[in-house]
Amino acid sequence: MFTDEDAERVHHPHDNAIVITLLIADYTTRRVLVDNGSSADILYYPAFQQMRLGQDQLCPVNLLLVGFGGMKVHPVGTITLPVVVGAYPQQITKEVNFLNVDCSSSYNAIIGKLTSNS
Description:
Blueprint: E1 18-24, E2 27-34, E3 41-44, H1 45-50, E4 65-66, E5 72-73, E6 77-87, E7 90-101, E8 109-111
Parallel strand pairs: 2-8, 3-7
Antiparallel strand pairs: 1-2, 1-6, 3-8, 4-5, 6-7
């Protein structure tokens, strides 16, 4: 949740992307895009490697993602990781099922469903 104080230097209306830092699997993950329109939570493979998580932790998945511009990508697998949002004392931890994707991106992750009940 964002407060009025968070919006003090934002010119309204705005259409800028919301890019945040999250603690994913005890790793400070910068450049996380918040995209409520995304139907999946994505963790890009280079970020996965930096977290030093084992390839054996990925569960195989057989699906095809279609991204911007019609680019099609086969995920490497899925992985469920704890994500900490906020700072003490106002923080929550939620288990998030990420699709792991090995393709080029300026982000380390995309959070699309974090606030939903699914």
